[in-house]
């Protein structure tokens, strides 16, 4: 895998970004021996930030920094679980300068200490801070607002507004991933002079898998200045291990040069990004951009972390509730069919009378029933001959068994069905009979049909060089990747389709039994 900084666009997916070997210059990093607190490794900016040159620190006891740091670390080690960074405040040197620090312990036992000058110290970028009372008031009203949000859309709007008010970045968006890892901007709060990114889509490749895995561990990342010279670790390899330092949990970690170039190309100077996590998976990101350097004090990053955590919890609750609602809708649908069948003797028309009940639970744009040679449709669908061709293909592909058949790129899977792409790029089909070709199918239109375009869709842009990376190119790349595809069917949706299919088969069997009884 390419070392940090050595990746190009062909292999950046595997860049070892956690082995960055450097920190952003606004803070200093020290690696300490887990036993005697000897300094094993330092970032090159210690002279400027701590007033001691690397040579004066390396292999020395931490106490050479003076102040109360050594005592505070000893106290923390007695009480705290240091597998994740723990915040502490300390004073260094004879002048007792204040620092915000974070400490965590690696599996090897070494301690990683990150130090950022507290307010009042001379820094290159103004430190953004809020009084604790203001922060507490902002947080408590935000938590109330998040807790009351009835839908993901309302919640996301509240999140961008609250985070922008709290942190002051020029733009804050909520970026949501689909099952394939592509992302969409679902909420935005921005400085009025900025162009909107709301509704824009980006391909999964913009955020490599390795970075996504890292963002589950390290929930808030700040980039203070995309152009600031980075401070390399000295020595480059951690003594004792002779390996690069694992910086997965480091707040000061330098970011991948490819990503930095992407940000420069979009004119962004500083970012703050927080993970939205649902059931152990990265659901989305809260991403903030600033067009000049921006530096939040660690307490404000912690507040952002808390907001992201609460938003994540609320997302799970809303989505779980939505799933329960859908299950309820299916039961109602079933009930209505049973009633309609007993009063009208015909379940098929009952099923298609109210298109919403059929389409909405599966977020489909069309539906078709093939039954006893008839074709009933609702929503947007291809022509009947095209539907019959689709049926023939689905039957051949689905084989025996009663698992639903799901495909999100019909025209690509079978070029003979390419003309179905606009209205039926996606199909989710359940079999209603073993003996006859009776099927219920939900359709999804091509996702490009319903997106907000970032630029001219007819002019694809393919970058081979990081200097050309940009959201515009990214959007073009996403458009190329998803051309001819529908939004993929989720496992929940497939399970639901199966549930509806089973219910229908029950009803059909009952109807047939009744018919037989009447005939006798
Ligand atoms: C990381 N790329 C990211 C991150 C975002 C994006 C949000 C996470 C940054 C963080 O958490 O701090 C993508 N940012 C976007 C998008 C928008 C945005 C889509 O503002 C839209 C408005 N990036 C590429 C390509 C590669 C790439 C083609 O576009 C590689 C081939 C790499 N992106 C890349 C890497 C990271 C990244 C390596 C990790 C950065 C790091 O944490 O070090």
UniProtKB/TrEMBL annotation:
Keywords noted in UniProt: Chromophore, Photoreceptor protein, Receptor, Sensory transduction
Residue stretches making up the Phytochrome chromophore attachment site domain: 151-309
Gene Ontology molecular function: any one: photoreceptor activity
Domain of life: Bacteria
GO biological process, one term: detection of visible light
Protein name: PAS sensor protein
Organism ancestry: Bacteria, Pseudomonadati, Pseudomonadota, Betaproteobacteria, Burkholderiales
């Amino acid at each position: 895998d390419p070392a940090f900084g050595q990746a190009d666009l062909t292999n950046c997916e595997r860049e070892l970004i956690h082995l960055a070997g450097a920190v952003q210059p606004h803070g200093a990093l020290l690696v300490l021996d887990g036993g005697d607190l000897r300094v094993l490794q330092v970032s090159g900016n210690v002279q400027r930030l701590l007033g001691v040159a690397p040579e004066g620190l390396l292999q020395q006891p931490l106490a050479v920094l003076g102040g109360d740091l050594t005592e505070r670390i000893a106290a923390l080690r007695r009480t705290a679980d240091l597998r994740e960074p723990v915040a502490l405040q300390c004073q260094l040197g004879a002048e007792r300068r204040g620092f915000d620090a974070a400490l965590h312990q690696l599996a090897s036992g070494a301690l990683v200490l990150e130090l950022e000058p507290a307010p009042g110290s001379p820094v290159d970028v103004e430190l953004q801070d809020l009084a604790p009372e203001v922060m507490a008031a902002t947080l408590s009203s935000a938590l109330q607002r998040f807790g009351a949000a009835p839908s993901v859309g309302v919640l996301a709007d509240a999140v961008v507004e609250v985070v922008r008010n709290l942190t002051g970045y020029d733009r804050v968006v909520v970026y949501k991933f689909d099952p394939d890892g592509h992302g969409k901007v679902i909420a935005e709060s921005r400085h009025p002079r900025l162009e909107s990114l709301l509704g824009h889509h980006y391909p999964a490749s913009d955020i490599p898998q390795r970075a996504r895995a890292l963002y589950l561990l390290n929930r808030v990342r700040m980039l203070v200045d995309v152009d600031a010279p980075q401070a390399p670790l000295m020595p480059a390899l951690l003594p004792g291990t002779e390996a690069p330092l694992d910086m997965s949990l480091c707040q000061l970690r330098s970011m991948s040069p490819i990503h930095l170039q992407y940000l420069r190309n979009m004119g962004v100077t500083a970012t703050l990004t927080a993970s939205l996590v649902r059931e152990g998976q990265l659901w989305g990101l809260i991403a903030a951009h600033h067009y000049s350097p921006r530096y939040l004090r660690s307490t404000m990053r912690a507040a952002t972390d808390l907001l992201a955590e609460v938003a994540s919890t609320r997302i799970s609750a809303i989505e779980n509730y939505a799933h329960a609602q859908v299950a309820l809708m299916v039961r109602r649908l079933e009930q209505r069919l049973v009633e309609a069948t007993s009063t009208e003797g015909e379940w098929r028309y009952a099923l298609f009378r109210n298109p919403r009940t059929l389409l909405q639970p599966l977020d489909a744009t069309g539906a078709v029933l093939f039954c006893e040679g008839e074709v009933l449709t609702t929503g947007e669908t291809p022509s009947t001959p095209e539907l019959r061709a689709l049926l023939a293909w689905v039957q051949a592909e689905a084989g025996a068994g009663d698992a639903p058949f799901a495909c999100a790129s019909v025209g690509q899977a079978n070029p003979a069905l390419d003309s179905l792409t606009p209205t039926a790029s996606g199909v989710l089909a359940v079999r209603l009979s073993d003996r006859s070709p009776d099927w219920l199918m939900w359709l999804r239109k091509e996702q490009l049909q319903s997106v907000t375009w970032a630029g001219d869709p007819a002019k694809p842009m393919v970058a081979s060089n990081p200097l050309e990376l940009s959201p515009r190119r990214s959007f073009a790349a996403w458009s190329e990747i998803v051309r001819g595809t529908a939004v993929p069917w989720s496992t929940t949706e497939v399970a639901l389709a199966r549930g509806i299919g089973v219910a229908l088969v029950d009803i059909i069997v009952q109807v047939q039994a009744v018919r037989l009884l009447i005939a006798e």
